[in-house]
Every structure is written in C-alpha cells, then in structure tokens.
C-alpha cells in the first residue's frame, strides 16, 4: 500500500468504524425477529406447569368482536368445553406454537385442598347469566375537564383494548389545534374543530401474540389447587360500567367459582383501580392464584431519535434494614427492553423476583414500563384515604416476561403477573386488587401527588442514555440541569428556547476561565516547541546512536527554556469537563416531559400560517414542513426537513477554516491529509448524526458553537497582545505536570541503568 493510499484509507476506515459504533451502540436498535417463538417459550413447553413459559389456549382471543357464547357452551363456542391445553391432564407438549403464552410460574406450590388437580382440569369458564354480551361501553371520556383518558374494553380476558388520552396528542400541531378548539368552546365561538382521532395519543392497544390478540392487563387464567383454568377467552360478561364477571363450572356444570373484574377511573387523574376477586361458590376450600398480563412494551415515540424503552421496579428493603417499611427505592431495578428480550431468549424470563431482589430479600412495591414520555405501572390499590399500602405482594408474587413477534419483524415484550396462592373457604372471597398508573412521566404528578409520592413512583423517570453512554451519564447532573432550566423558564425568561440559550451562556461562562487558560497554554507550548525545533534537530543528529543521552539532553533543553513538553494535554481539560455536561444535557433534553411539544421563542414562528419551525423542542426543527407520517430513510426516522443540523455543519466549517490557528511547525503530507479528512468528518458526520435529534439539543449545540467562535477569537486576540507586549522576564519554572514528567523519566532511566549493571556476588560486596 503506497503512502498516498494509506493516507486516504486509514481515516476512511476510522470514519467507518465510528459510524458503525454509533449505529450499533448509540442507536441501540433491536434486531429483527423471525416468526418463531423464543427459546425460553419453546423449552418451557416441554416442562408443563412446573416449567417456564407454559402455552395455554385462549379460545376466541383472535376475534374480539365476536359475541361470547351462551351459558350452555364452553367459552370458545365449540360445545362441550375442552381443557385449557387440549388435554385433560393439563400437559402442554405438542401445543400449537401460536397459542398465547405466559411467563414462568412462581416457585412455591399451593397447598392441596378440596378437589384434586384431575377434577379441576375439567372446569371451564362461562359468562355469567346476569351480564350483557356484545358491545361494551367505554369508561371515561375525551373531555379533559372531566377525564384524563378513555378506556375501551375487550371481552377477551376482560382486558382493555385501548387506552387513549384526552389531553395528549401525537404532534405539536394537533396539540395547538386542540387548544384552539378548547378556547373556542369556552368562549362560545364556532368554526374550530378537534384534530383527527388518529392523532390522539394512545398509550396502549391490544397487541398480537401469535394468532391471538392480547388486550392490556387481560386476565389469563386462575390456578386452583395447582391446576390452571383458562379465562383468556370471551367467557366474560359486562355487568356494569367497567365491570365484568365470569363463572367457573365443574365437569357436571355446577358453578364453583365466580370471577369479578372492575375498572375504576380516578377523578380527573391518570390512575386506574382494578378490583379483582374470586368467590368460592362450592362446598370445599380451594387454593387459588390469579394470573394475568401486566405492563408490556409501550409504543415508540413518533419523533424518536433513539428508541429507549425500559422496565422498572420499586421495592422495600427488609425490616432489618428498614424497620419502618416506609422507604421505597428503585435503584438497580431497571432493565432495557433489549436486555429483557435477550434474557427471555436464553431461558431466563423472570423479572421479579430476580437475583438481586432474592439476595437482598426485597419486597415489590411497584412495577412498570416506560417509553420516552409515558408510563404504565402497577402499584398497590389505594382507596384515596387512610394509610397508603407500599407492598404489592398481596396481589402480585412474581412477574415473568414473554416475547412475541410482531408484524414488520419487530418484537413485543409481554409481562405476566402471578398472584400469591390464597386459600378460600366455602362462601369466602380472595381479592387481587391492583392500582395502575397510566400517564406521563411528569415530576409534578409523580413527585407531588399521592399515592405516587409515597410509592416514589418518580423512580420511573430516568434521564439516562443507553449503550456506551450509560456509565458517563450522571443522572444527578441531568436532574440539576433540568431544575435550573425549569427555574429559568418559570421565573426568568418564560420560554424554553430562551432558557436553553441562557443555559448555554451560563455554562460557557463557568468554563471560560478553564478554556482560556488551556488555550493560552496550548498556544505557548506550540510556539515554544516551534522555536526549539532547530535545536532539537541538532540534538537528534548528534545523539542518534544514543537514545538515553538524547532524552537527557532534550529534558535539559526543555528545563533551560522552561517548556513543558506535555503542556498541550491541558487543552483537553475543557473537552473532558464538557463531555459529561453534554451527555447529561442530551439525556435531559431527550427525556424531559416538560419540553414535550413546547415551542421556542414564544411560538412566534407558528404565527406565520402555523409554520412548524421550532414548534416542538423535543422533536427535530421541521424548518420546511412536517411529514404527516414518519418516513424511514436508512437508519433515520424522518419527520420533516430540518435546518439547525445544516447550520451546525456551516458553523463547524467556519470555526475550523477561520478560527483554527495554523500549526507552529510545518506538517508532513500525511499529517496534512489526515487533518483535512478529520475536518471533513467534523463538518459532515456530526450534523448527519444529529439530523433527527431534538431541536432543543441542536439549538444548544449551535448556540454553544457560535459562542465558542467569539470566545476563541477573544482568546487569540489576548495571546497576540501578550506576545507583542511580553511581561518582564521571570525565572521560568516548570509546572507540576512538567516536574512529574521529568521525575518519571529519571526513574525510568535509573531502572534501565540498574538492569545494565551486572549483579555483584556476595564476596564482592
């Protein structure tokens, strides 16, 4: 390879490697999946009830619109009921791979009481006779003055088919249209209308799993004396607003259990209470366990730059460490969905209890899943008065994950909740109530309202990047910056765009003394090294055959001239200091709910015919227009044509061409070629990588770069004035770093000298 080819090839290889690392680590995109089920599910199928992810048939789940059968047939409408797995002994070997799955069963086995497992295997679920079949009325409304959400239900498992908000929209334009409609309605004006329903933000929908569709928080089955009875079917009847009931009958058609599920919306809040109970209608005690689907993957954000969805858990320390049992923690119990998928595929679907919780003897307080701005979490049910329960163990004993392929090659993580085994006497009842938070990751709600404040549900909020940036993202720094940015917005400038610019000015001002000192030091060292070059060349020619002597003479020359050969390293100090600030700022601007769909500069650009430029600081700037639907282009999720990243490239070009000082010594052709390629990489690579980044972040970087140009010009002016009017000569001293370098060199020379001297024998000493 010729030198010319090498000069071009090596930087291109570095550029390709950088792009590869950025794509694979920073974007952290999931790999496509095949239609086959996960390894954990396949291996668990051979283990039956005692194993991991049991496959259980769920009649009717694939057609939610079909009416439930009458009370004389099984829930699947096929006449006499079949067992949940297609056999009478509950085995699942040979079950169809498209049957709905659940995760691993809890370890403790329930106590045997009453009917045997063989008898329970013939029990089937039916809709109650006093309920209504067919269309189910929704709960809540889309009026933000009275309700925060509307729930639509499915008869399959008495689950939720859709959770849609009344006050959140997919785009900033839809939000502005909804605000205009609300103002017009309050004043009695006409002509305004709500945005299309397709633009309403939907937290969760029913999700495909094999050939079935799983509603949100749907009931899957109950376990009676160690035998599962399938209820993931249309065996539920609506007996009131948000209230469903099902009846379990034995092999002779006699009612033995009544199951009830009731969904209650909080008053103008994001909380849902699920009251779940099992009533024993028979004449023998029974050990029962409730099994249902829990919080699973939430949809990705429309204007996402990266996809970060996570699972979180809050917990209590054991009484020995927390006697009051009042401090809920969330540290160390967060998993990226990619980590969950990998764990399921290698046969470890358990989300709770996990290795850390078992080792620490922790008690579960809440469990949830998040996307960029929203959360779906379960917590102990609270009546609204009295003590707030902090433990979820009375309703959920363990949680497992199931991964199912989705149309388009993606994957979806389902969580399965296993309740504790409870003994129910004849005529008695067992309750498995849950509280559900379905709302935004808003600190004002999670830190300021009960029961979320006592449960510390704010642990769902995490300003943390994934991949290689995790270790250098200081969450406390992001929290501090968000608090300060909110202070600037709320009390100083009253605009998020101006608050970001003000934050840039403050951060640059704080770093200016360090930046100035490092730049001055670099310039001085560069000039001094240039002045010493002729003498250094003479030393190299004189001592070319004696490297040790050459080093000694070079250090003597540095000492006489007062030059620190490693002084240029101090120029990297500002960069090192700014790196955690930039990453924390990146995480804060990306995850802060406060910035979602917030315009910059008081929305002045939107006054020009609804111009979308900087209408949403959490999404790209959309200078020219905003696409109705995101468009995939290579690795980018394009939502519009953006200007700020292009301006960043222009600013970088100006900064490098006109503001970078010339080298003190001539560069070799190889060095000049490499420097040229690195400049092109800086000008092109960063704007391309940040093209779909939030406009709040690109606004910060652009402003910081412009200020950096002005700052660099002032520093160079100061250096030139100092060079033209030098201060009185002083005795030059080496700084601490130079002295450390010289001492280290002396120690190395001493060790080399000792190795060259032969060891003396004992008689010669």
Question: Helix and strand layout, with pairings?
Answer:
Blueprint: H1 3-26, H2 39-45, H3 117-120, E1 124-127, E2 139-140, E3 149-154, E4 159-169, H4 172-187, E5 200-205, E6 207-209, E7 212-214, E8 219-224, E9 227-230, E10 237-240, E11 243-249, E12 255-265, E13 271-280, E14 286-293, E15 310-316, E16 328-329, E17 334-336, H5 337-345, E18 350-352, H6 355-360, E19 363-370, E20 374-379, E21 398-405, E22 411-418, E23 422-424, E24 429-431, E25 434-440, H7 443-446, H8 452-455, H9 475-492, H10 496-542, H11 547-561, H12 573-591, E26 626-633, E27 636-640, H13 644-658, H14 669-689, H15 695-724, H16 736-756
Antiparallel strand pairs: 1-11, 2-3, 3-4, 4-5, 6-7, 8-9, 8-14, 10-11, 11-12, 12-13, 13-24, 13-25, 14-22, 14-23, 15-16, 15-17, 15-19, 18-21, 19-20, 20-25, 21-22, 26-27
Helix pairs in contact: 1-14, 9-10, 9-12, 10-11, 10-12, 10-15, 13-14, 13-15
